[in-house]
């Protein structure tokens, strides 16, 4: 079925998919068309069931079709799916986010992570009256024009340097520097200090595999932006509400001026948000002059699902996610070492990624140097065994609270069998 659906899809959807990594180009083969998800498992159109480590790329932190999240969405839909007028749920969601995230006074909802980073940059530029931004090679912030330079995720998977259709004007104010490099950031501020509105970063780079910040690097970014009157925009679209109650901001003790949220915040529905200090957020219309809007922003169905999911994410949930990640990471590391396959598993909290290489990966160059052909073979070996991993060696793996110890052990056992075939 996946084969025939994909053939039909390719006729009417570019590449057969609505987001590039889904097409399996990074690993080869035909993408599985999913028909059903329940807890930690997905079932494809051919009736094959897999233990899922993609989890919609992060949003489904409680597993597929969590009964409370489903019920909240159904209830909200019954009473009215969209008004174009404010609703109680939006207030409650904003209050929940403000209560969880240190330093966030106000938030505004949007519909995707792309919109969140794009809007946060606009308000940051409006607030500082400056044009230039610094981003890191291999970090992914959605597909907004200004950010589509040396981006991670699908851009990395497909090996695209930069995207045609993005004008030089759109990226002319984007300065790209290597992640974990202090000198390059310092040099950018020396050359353009008074023109730099902000630095945008993932707190843990997780769209080129998982590449944590070096010791002290976040402190360095905070200090250099402050010294130059620039802002620090932390893109927590992947890490927010995943790494801890208060995301990476809480876990790593960050002090961002602006934060972008997405993925987990929407409970599997199209919802994202951005927030920050009141003096910055009050630049937004209708209070201030920076325009930003959306017909479906703060959609009641998405808000109900997202809020329900957030309220279930307590300290126990994060402890469970971390313990499951520990078990999986330890098991995989042992499987590769027993098979004599050089592998490097990098993590922060429950977020982790796998590189087939024998050295630690600290930047995009290192991520590209890993053995991505071997990742493709590992991926297909695991898929055949019933374990659905990210179809690209540039992506993180995701556990949910619905995964059990038995699920993890089954995946580790399969990995040991597949690892043995990778050695040759
Ligand atoms: C997924 C992601 C985005 C883009 O979010 P979309 O909802 O896909 O537009 C932005 N930033 C980071 C860090 C992400 O992981």
Helix and strand sequence: HEEEHHEHEHHEHEHEHEEHHHEEHHEH
Enter the CATH topology name of the largest domain: Aspartate Aminotransferase, domain 2
Query: Radius of gyration, Cα only, in angstroms?
Result: 21 Å
CATH architecture of the largest domain: 3-Layer(aba) Sandwich
Hetero ligands: pyridoxal-5'-phosphate
The helical percent reads 25-40%
Largest sheet properties: 7 strands, mixed
Query: If helices are DSSP runs of H or I spanning 4 or more residues, what is the number of helices?
Result: 15
- Terminal CA distance reads 33 Å
Looking at this structure, what is the CATH superfamily of the largest domain?
Type I PLP-dependent aspartate aminotransferase-like (Major domain)
For the record, the CATH class of the largest domain is Alpha Beta
Number of strands: 13
Q: What spatial order of strands do you see in the largest sheet?
A: 4-10-9-8-7-5-6
Uncertain regions: pLDDT < 50 for 5+ in a row?
Answer: none
Beta content: 5-15%
Total number of distinct structural domains: 2
The outline comes out as: globular
Helix-and-strand structural type: alpha/beta
Subcellular location: Cytoplasm
Pathway: Porphyrin-containing compound metabolism; protoporphyrin-IX biosynthesis; 5-aminolevulinate from L-glutamyl-tRNA(Glu): step 2/2
Family: Belongs to the class-III pyridoxal-phosphate-dependent aminotransferase family. HemL subfamily.
EC number: 5.4.3.8
């Amino acid at each position: 079925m996946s084969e025939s659906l994909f053939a039909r899809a390719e006729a009417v959807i570019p590449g057969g998919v609505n987001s590039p990594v889904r097409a399996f180009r990074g690993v080869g083969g035909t993408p599985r068309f999913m028909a059903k998800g329940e807890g930690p498992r997905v079932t494809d159109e051919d009736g094959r069931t897999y233990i899922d480590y993609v989890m919609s790329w992060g949003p489904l932190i409680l597993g597929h079709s969590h009964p409370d999240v489903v019920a909240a969405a159904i209830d909200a839909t019954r009473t009215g799916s969209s008004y174009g007028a404010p609703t109680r749920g939006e207030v409650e969601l904003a209050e929940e986010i403000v209560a969880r995230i240190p330093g966030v006074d106000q938030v505004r909802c949007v519909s995707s992570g792309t919109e969140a980073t794009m809007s946060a940059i606009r308000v940051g530029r409006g607030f500082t009256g400056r044009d230039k931004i610094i981003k890191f090679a291999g970090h992914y912030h959605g597909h907004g024009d200004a950010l589509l330079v040396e981006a991670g995720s699908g851009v990395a998977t497909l090996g695209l340097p930069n995207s045609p259709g993005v004008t030089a004007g759109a990226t002319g104010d984007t300065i790209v520097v290597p992640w974990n490099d202090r000198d390059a950031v310092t040099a950018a501020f020396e050359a353009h200090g008074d023109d730099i509105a902000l630095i945008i970063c993932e707190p843990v780079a997780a769209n080129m595999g998982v590449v944590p910040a070096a010791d002290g690097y976040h402190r360095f970014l905070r200090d250099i932006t402050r010294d130059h009157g620039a802002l620090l925009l932390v893109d927590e679209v992947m890490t927010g509400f995943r790494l801890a109650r208060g995301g990476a901001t809480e876990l790593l003790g960050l002090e961002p001026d602006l934060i972008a949220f997405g993925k987990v915040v929407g409970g599997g529905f199209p919802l994202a948000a951005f927030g920050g200090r009141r003096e910055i957020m009050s630049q937004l219309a209708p209070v201030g002059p920076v325009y930003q809007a959306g017909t479906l922003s703060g959609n009641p169905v998405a808000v109900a699902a997202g809020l329900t999911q957030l309220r279930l994410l307590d300290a126990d949930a994060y402890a469970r996610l971390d313990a499951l990640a520990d078990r999986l990471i330890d098991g995989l590391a042992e499987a590769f070492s027993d098979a004599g396959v050089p592998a490097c598993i990098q993590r922060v909290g429950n977020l982790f990624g796998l590189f087939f290489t024998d050295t630690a990966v600290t930047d995009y160059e290192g991520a590209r140097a890993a053995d991505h052909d071997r990742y493709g073979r590992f991926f297909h070996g695991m898929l055949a065994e019933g374990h659905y991993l990210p179809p690209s060696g540039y992506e993180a793996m995701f556990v949910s609270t619905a995964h059990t110890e038995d699920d993890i052990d089954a995946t580790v056992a399969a990995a040991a069998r597949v690892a043995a075939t990778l050695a040759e």
